[in-house]
Amino acid sequence: MPLLTVGHRGLMGAEPENTLRSFRRAEREGVDVIELDIHLSKDGHLVVMHDARVDRTTDGSGRIAEMTLAELRALDAGQGERVPVFREVMEAVSAPVQAEIKDAAAARGLAAAVTELGLHDRVRVISFHDAALRETRALLPEIPIALVTGESTATAPERAVALGASMVSCEFPRLTPEVVGRCHAAGIEVISWTVNTAEELARAVELGLDGVVTDEPELAHAALAGA
Ligand code: G3P
Ligand code: CA
Fold first, then answer.
1. Residue ranges of the domains in the chain?
2. Please, are residues 159 and 141 in contact by the beta-carbon 8 Å criterion?
3. pLDDT tens per residue across span 167-196
């Protein structure tokens, strides 16, 4: 089976992360799925950004939750790109999307957007936060969900089963054959973030992973080619 190839925040090794430019690049490079991160603005918009603060990825300063969309729109998110909202991304690209809930308060709004825009077949909701995934499951019983894990990767199989997640996305250095085996025994797919070198890709294949999340166009090409 070929590896599912997921473009991380678009393809953040090549373009400013979580921007339309990055998502379009990921689609051009042929990734199977685009990954993005979601926060909630002060006025309730689904803002696509990784950190809770705008400081690292824009020329501004402050917490997303304390800023309006108009204030966020005034920022430069890299190479003149504006901070996108979820709907814009879904309109800018046609690839499937892994929408990661960073701020659990965004779960309800994301479920509403998926329903309003008819995105059930294009979106998988993913999160580190069990509560956000539980809320998503309650609001969208049919949507595929994935549990994201870092330090807690060892318990990913049990948590995923309890949440009704059909996939886990685990931090690469923390994955072991044992965790992969327990996930697969439970019928849960395993993908991993982030896989950016040929050596890491070889290890991903050796571990029997179902997919890789990558920052890099070259790695995406290699994974898509079945390397
Ligand atoms: O796809 C999961 C991965 O994106 C989680 O890590 O910190 O890059 O959102 P992070
Ligand atoms: Ca993410």
1. 4-52+85-224
2. no
3. 999 999 999 999 999 999 999 999 999 999
To test the pocket of ligand 1, the residue of 8, 9, 189 to mutate (highest count of ligand atoms within 8 Å of its CB) is 8
- For residue range 188-198, list pLDDT tens digits in order: 999 999 999 99
Neighbours of 148 (CB within 10 A): 26
| Segment 17-29 mean pLDDT | 98
Beta carbon of 167 within 6 Å of any ligand 1 atom:
no
The answer to whether the beta carbons of residues 23 and 14 sit under 8 Å apart is: no
Select from 3.20.20.190, 3.30.230.10, 3.40.50.300, 3.40.50.720 the CATH code of 4-52+85-224.
3.20.20.190
CB atoms within 10 A of CB 57: 22
**Ligand 1 pocket residue status of 193, Cβ below 6 Å:** yes
Token pair, residue 205, equals 């294949």
Q: How far apart are CA 33 and CA 154, in angstroms?
A: 25
Question: Which of the four pLDDT bands, split at 50, 70 and 90, describes residue 162?
Answer: very high
